[in-house]
Design goal:
The protein is of the alpha+beta class. It has five helices and four strands; from the N terminus they run H-E-H-E-H-H-E-E-H. The longest helix has 13 residues.
Length: 133
């Protein structure tokens, strides 16, 4: 939840940045038994953000599939396998990036969010054009 609050802080500091933020919550630790509460979701209240609950960790699985298919494309510091769960990660994609078969290569990513947050502001300010709808 600290990561969500940190993302809101960066969005507030970059109120004019043309970005679209997708926040995906998923069950990872033993206490993640249900979707986030309203108070948890309220930590990110910026109109540019949409939040989703991914009960089955489908997004994580799709990211891992893409990375395993072409590990050199993503230049990750650690190896991943089909049991890896992607969570507590922030990623920025270039304007116009589309997700076809594989996740696009992010222009910035880091984990955990609270440790990577210092790079998020500069990364979103680097997005020069409007985000896709």
């Amino acid at each position: 939840m600290r990561g969500a609050s940190a993302i809101q802080d960066v969005l507030s500091e970059n109120a004019r940045a043309a970005v679209r933020v997708l926040i995906v919550w998923e069950p990872v630790i033993v206490t993640d038994v249900a979707m986030p509460t309203s108070s948890t979701l309220a930590r990110v209240h910026d109109a540019r953000a949409a939040q989703f609950w991914d009960q089955d960790r489908a997004l994580s699985g799709d990211i891992i599939r893409s990375v395993m298919a072409d590990p050199d494309r993503y230049s990750l510091p650690d190896e991943v396998d089909e049991k890896t769960v992607v969570w507590d990660v922030v990623a920025v994609f270039p304007p116009g990036a589309t997700w076809d078969r594989d996740i696009p290569k992010p222009s910035f990513y880091g984990s955990p969010v609270v440790d990577a947050i210092d790079g998020l502001g500069p990364a979103i300010r680097g997005a020069k054009s409007s985000p896709p709808n």
